[in-house]
Design a protein that fits this description.
single chain, about 290 residues, mainly alpha, about 65% helix, about 0% strand
């Protein structure tokens, strides 16, 4: 297989009608590690909005059960994409998200901002650290995918193009990013989970490396100390070097899913998408006969 095998396959597809297939090839074959990192940072950014971060803190889920919330989020989102938005499992995952979100007073503006981070942050990550930039077809497909997901989530007034999502995300952060003890607690709990994925001896370097990748706006919102310029340069330069090396690697023949990673620890025997996430006392837990592997 040539290095551009999947690029040529993607170029043959229509982003308006085959956006899911294009997204699957990009996420699971072309950039699996990059998308995993970028989407994690996308979610991390949302904690800096007080109305979001405070809610996550008050539920206790992202502070007291950080690993499970991480796993639930990754598995719900992956089920939608891997199974297909319109499939039985995909719709079940979307329904699970809507049930969780519907249990709390979340504004349309906050929901729309979170969706915008999913659209924008991965593309900026690939631009800065990927082994290649996303193609126009890949960007268009990702845009259409999240627009459809947003529609099913009942999010109103979605931007019509990528530039609109970029403008929305940046403006929302400028207006709403504000230091808050609760948002910082959620961010610190998430960083602690990230550090736990690596050997204990690397705890400090991983924590500093993570802060080195954060922009000034995000650091200020969490009141995190910015690492020295040399550390920032080394961290970001290291990621760019990784991308250059990956250009010479063969294309991935088999897809790489979140369930393939040892970071998903909560469900060693498989999971049921209907049981993922939180179930407030007023919501009966939905059951399913067979687990999803």
């Amino acid at each position: 297989m040539r290095r551009d095998h999947w690029q040529r396959k993607i170029a043959e597809l229509d982003p308006e009608t085959q956006f899911e297939e294009i997204s699957r090839l990009a996420v699971y074959h072309e950039f699996p590690w990059d998308y995993q990192q970028a989407l994690s940072f996308a979610l991390f950014r949302t904690y800096a909005v007080p109305s979001i971060g405070r809610l996550l803190f008050d539920t206790g889920e992202f502070v007291e059960r950080t690993q499970k919330r991480h796993d639930d989020t990754a598995l719900v989102l992956e089920t939608v994409l891997s199974a297909g938005i319109e499939s039985r499992d995909g719709r079940a995952a979307v329904r699970r998200m809507n049930q969780m979100h519907g249990s709390y007073d979340i504004s349309n503006e906050d929901m729309r901002y979170v969706l915008a981070t999913f659209v924008v942050v991965p593309q900026r990550w690939l631009r800065d650290y990927g082994w290649r930039d996303s193609s126009e077809i890949e960007i268009a497909a990702g845009l259409r995918y999240y627009q459809r997901l947003g529609e099913l989530m009942g999010i109103k007034d979605l931007p019509e193009d990528f530039a609109g999502f970029e403008a929305l995300m940046d403006a929302y952060e400028i207006e709403h990013f504000t230091p808050d003890p609760k948002t910082r607690a959620v961010a610190e709990a998430t960083l602690e989970l990230l550090i736990s994925f690596y050997p204990r001896i690397l705890a400090r370097p991983v924590e500093v490396f993570s802060r080195a990748l954060m922009d000034d706006r995000l650091l200020a919102a969490f009141e995190f100390k910015r690492p020295p310029r040399l550390v920032v340069a080394l961290a970001r330069g290291g990621l760019r070097l990784r991308g250059r090396i990956e250009r010479f690697m063969p294309p991935r023949r088999t897809p790489r899913f979140a369930t393939d990673l040892n970071r998903i620890r909560t469900y060693p025997g498989g999971f049921m998408v209907e049981r993922l996430g939180t179930f407030p006392a007023t919501m009966p837990e939905i059951t399913q006969e067979s687990p999803t592997a």
